[in-house]
C-alpha cells in the first residue's frame, strides 16, 4: 500500500495538481513559518547572552568591592574587638554597595535561572563570603555559618555549600596574612584565647590549626 505524502509540518499533500500560483504561495508561507521559528531562537539566545553579560559585570563589581573590604580589614591589629570607626564606616559602605548589586541581579536569577546562571555569580559569592567571614572573625573570633551568610543576602540569591566552603578556604589565606603581620608587630597578646579551647591554646594560629582539622574532616 502506497504511503501518504505529507509536508514538513505533517499536513497531507493534495493529490490534485496545483497551479504555479498556489505552489508559490504555499512555499512563501512555509518559509515565513520557518523564519519565525528561527527568529524566536535568535531572540532567546540574545536574551540569554545579555542576561549572562549583566551577571558577569555584577559579579566583577562585587568581587572588586569584596577585595577592597579585605584590604581595609587587614589594617586591623586586634581580634575579638570592635573595629575602629573609620574602618567600620569604610567597610559598611562597601557592604551596602554589594547588597545593592545582588539586588540588581535578582531579575536575572529568578525561577529556573537561579541554577542556570549560578555559575556566573559563584565567584562573586565566594569572594563576598571571604570578606564577610573575615570581618566576622576579626570582630568575634569565630567562623560565620552558612545560615548566617544567607541572612546577609537576598533570599533569591543561591548560596551553595560549595561556595560557602570555597569562601572559607580563601579566608585561611587572609587569616595567615593577618597572623604574620600581627605577630611580627607584636600586637597579638600571649594570653589571647579562643572560647572553647584549653588555656595553652590561644590566638589566631590555633584557630588556623582548628580550621585545617575541620577541613580535613570533610
UniProtKB/TrEMBL annotation:
InterPro entries: Translin_C, Translin_fam, Translin_N, Translin_sf
GO CC aspect terms: cytoplasm; nucleus
Annotated SUPFAM superfamilies: Translin
Record-annotated membrane-spanning stretches: none
Region (Disordered), start-end ranges: 1-26
Subcellular location: Cytoplasm; Nucleus
GO molecular function: sequence-specific DNA binding
Biased composition regions of type Polar residues, renumbered to the chain: 13-26
Superkingdom field: Eukaryota
Keywords per UniProt: Cytoplasm, Nucleus
Family: Belongs to the translin family.
Protein's name according to its UniProt entry: Putative translin-associated factor TraX
Lineage: Eukaryota, Fungi, Dikarya, Ascomycota, Pezizomycotina
